[in-house]
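Lay summary. Proteins are chains of building blocks that fold into shapes, and those shapes determine what they do. In this project we predict the shape from the chain. Here is one chain we studied, written as its sequence of building blocks.
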Amino acid sequence: MDYATKQNGIGVGHDLESCTSEIRAVQCRHPNEAGEVVFVDTPGFDDTYKPDIEILSTIADWLVKTYKNHDQLALIVYLHRISDNRMSGSPLRNLKIFASMCGQVAMPAVVLGTTMWGYIQGNDGARREQQLKDKFWADMIQSGCDVKRFADSHESAWEIVGQLKHQANTQLAGEIVDENKRLNETTAGVRLNEELKQLLAKQQETVRLLADQAKKDGDPIIIGELEKEREELQGRITKIADQLGQLSIPWTRRFVGFFRRKNKKNRDLKYAPSSSYWLLLN
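And here is the predicted shape, written in a compact code that computers can read:
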């Protein structure tokens, strides 16, 4: 967003800590098209200081407000660091939640943008990009999304933006507004719940292995280090468990939701034309 609008913001994150903790919006004119463009930068699900459930809630609130205002998204950009040599852990979890937020209906308006090409050498970048296309992004590409490279420049940013031919709404907003679902009942909420359960199981297994290793090792220094690591993991487990508690669906809501799905009727919202294009960046 900062490259496209020439703002003095933080820009694309190149370190381990999240750059964006709140939603930021900047309006500017499209250099090649008529009309205004509104860039909206949202926090990612690897935020250093905020739990995933809070991030999802923040994004959902904005999407719902936009949906109710009849403002459609012209483009949804998901940024991935090509310098990451493995697609696992947080990056894979973030991608799954992002896809569940958008839904198939919004995929033609999605661009999967790769960043940090200047941080890799040789053919590594091209090889990783092809692996992403063939394996991790294949379903999204098949549903109509595009893949583009970002070259850390103003021109490259607007090449990604393109001609803004799409008008889309996300599955997440539709589920909350049209289907009257709570956040934890949406496809994205259920996906986050599943991902956190898997993460919790992995963390618990690591804690168990550390405890076993500490029992076998007689060196008090090593035992102390293992215990410190175990306590840190236990703190993460507690935070994950708290999020899972917030995402749990009471049986009464499950009961009502069953009949709501059985009796659901399709409703179409009529959208007023707008002279502004809304771009969502994640």
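What the prediction tells us: The radius of gyration is 21 Å.
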